[in-house]
Structure formats: structure tokens, C-alpha cells
Amino acid sequence: MTTSAAVHVLCLYRVKAGQEAAFVELLRRHWPALRRSELATDEPAQVQRAKDRKGGTVFVERFAWRSAESSGLAHQSPEVMAVWEPMGALCEGMEFLDVEPVKIDFVG
């Protein structure tokens, strides 16, 4: 495994109506599968649920890849793919954003 820095990511999952419970069951397995495959850092994933402006359910997952290469290597992990493939069928769309903290000195 490479020694490059962790890459923090936000994953937005737009879940199909009526599929929320099945999606949550897969999401419960997601970060543990990434950890067992040594692709994510030890910091547990954080998950929030939201409603978009059209009333659709969106899950937002935040976690950190161990390295910039980890997301590509995940496609080679049977355990990860066993989660990802059915996730896709439960979603109308997914978006993945690499994020970094921004230091802001708030005023007022």
C-alpha cells in the first residue's frame, strides 16, 4: 500500500423512493468493507440523511481513503464490489467529491 496522504471524500447517494431501508443495510457494510480491504482510514464514516428540494432522499457519507490510489483499488476488492454493485441499483444517482478543510477566520 502506498504512503500518500489520506483523501477525504463526500459521497452523495440519491436513493430511489421505497429503497431507503435496503440502501441503509448496504451502507452499514460499506465502510467496514473498505476498512477490511485496508482502503479507508481508521476514522469511522459519518452518515447523514437529507431530503432534496423535490422530496427525494439523499444520504451523505463522509470518510477518508487511505491514499489517492485507494478508490481505484476498491474496484479490485470483491468485498467492496459486493456492496457497490447493489448500491448502484438502489440509487437514481451518486456523486463523489474529494474534499479538504478550508481555514476561515469568521468575523462578527
Short summary:
The protein is α+β, with helices and mostly antiparallel strands.
Topology:
Elements: E1 7-15, H1 20-36, E2 46-51, E3 57-65, H2 70-74, H3 78-90, E4 91-99
Antiparallel strand pairs: 1-3, 1-4, 2-3
Helix pairs in contact: 1-3
Q: Structural class, please? A: alpha+beta
Question: What is the share of helical residues?
Answer: 25-40%
Shape: flat
Strand content: 25-35%
The side-by-side strand order for the widest beta sheet comes to 2-3-1-4
Query: How many DSSP H or I helices?
Result: 3
Give the terminus-to-terminus CA distance: 46 Å
Radius of gyration (Å): 15 Å
How many strands, what sense, and barrel or not for the largest sheet? Answer: 4 strands, antiparallel
Secondary-structure element series: EHEEHHE
Q: Give the uncertain stretches in residue-range form.
A: none
Mean pLDDT: 95
